[in-house]
Amino acid sequence: MNQLEFAGKTALVTGGSKGIGRVCCEQLAAAGAAVIVNYSSSEKAALEFVEQIASSGGRAIALQADVSSIDEVQEMVHAGEEALGPIDLLVNNAGIFDYVPHDETTPDIWQRTLNVNLTGTYNVTWAVKPGMIERGYGSIVNMSSISALRPRPLSIAYAVSKAGMISLTQSLSVALAKKGIRVNAVAPGLIETDIISDVSQSDLDNLINQTPMERIGQPKEIADLVLFLLSERSSFMTGQTLVASGGRVMLP
Ligand code: NAP
After folding, report:
1. What are the domain boundaries of the chain?
2. Is 190 close to ligand 1, i.e. is its CB under 6 Å away?
């Protein structure tokens, strides 16, 4: 990769202080982008992280916002653009995971999961896209999941929210193509981050056994795809979902 592939660009990564989002931020900063690291509750991690980026010669700020609140999102985007300039690159990565059977998927769990994962993606895109349209340039990547592509009786709300993100990616990609904005998605399989901490070791072992590559993925293996989709290396791609699951997506 060209080291300064994103020089002069500003990126916003939601849920950027941990897990997959954190590695996306690290790679974007290392490739020259100024990075807005959004967090919801992990303030300490976010503040330490942006200091770490600065001490490696990068530019980053941490901004708090719950992506499910359009008011908080609008405020974050305004503050981020004031500090680092217009947002060219957006990674809708923030997400929560409901690992519960259908009879424990209460209306509250359903609503919260849809609000953060799907409405959150819509909210941040809504706040960022007028500037992208005005400048005739933007690249957006939405973090879906292979849960969108197969039945998931142990995470119904999550699976629906992630399927909605693929549909949103496709519809927005068509709506925004003529404006110079590309919208793509990534659908990871099991990746080693905090979000899967509620999955029991025996369930994890089963999932790994059902994965042709017989292992869990690492955040960098997803961040590499995100950066590819954000970059001009994928300049003729829009509305697409790249799957990275060690082959698990092919199985039930
Ligand atoms: P993670 O380390 O738990 O990260 C989740 C991130 O989402 C955190 O940074 C968290 O920020 C943020 N977040 C949660 N609710 C938020 C809200 N309301 N507003 C703003 N940010 C919020 O897990 P991860 O695996 O890296 O997850 C990143 C994305 O990958 C998620 O969308 C997830 O669904 C997707 N994914 C993960 C896997 C996997 O197996 N790990 C597989 C497929 C897809 P705070 O800590 O500040 O709250």
Report:
1. 10-244
2. yes
